Amino acid sequence: MEIRKAKVQGFCFGVAITVKKAEEAIGSRSDVTTLGHVVHNPQMVESLEQRGLRNAGSVDEVESGALFVRAHGLPVEVFEKAAEKGLEVIDATCPMVTKIHVQAERLKDDGYKIIVVGDPKHPEVKGTLSHVPGAWCIETVEDIEKLPRSSKVGVVVQSTYSRERFTDIVKALSEKYYEVRAVNTICTDTNNRQTEALRLAGEVEVMVVVGGKTSANTKHLAELAETHGARSYHIEGPDELRAEWFDGIAVTGLMSGASTPGWLVDQVETRIKELTRQPV
Question: Which end of the chain is more exposed for a tag (fewer CB within 10 A), N or C?
Answer without folding.
Answer: C
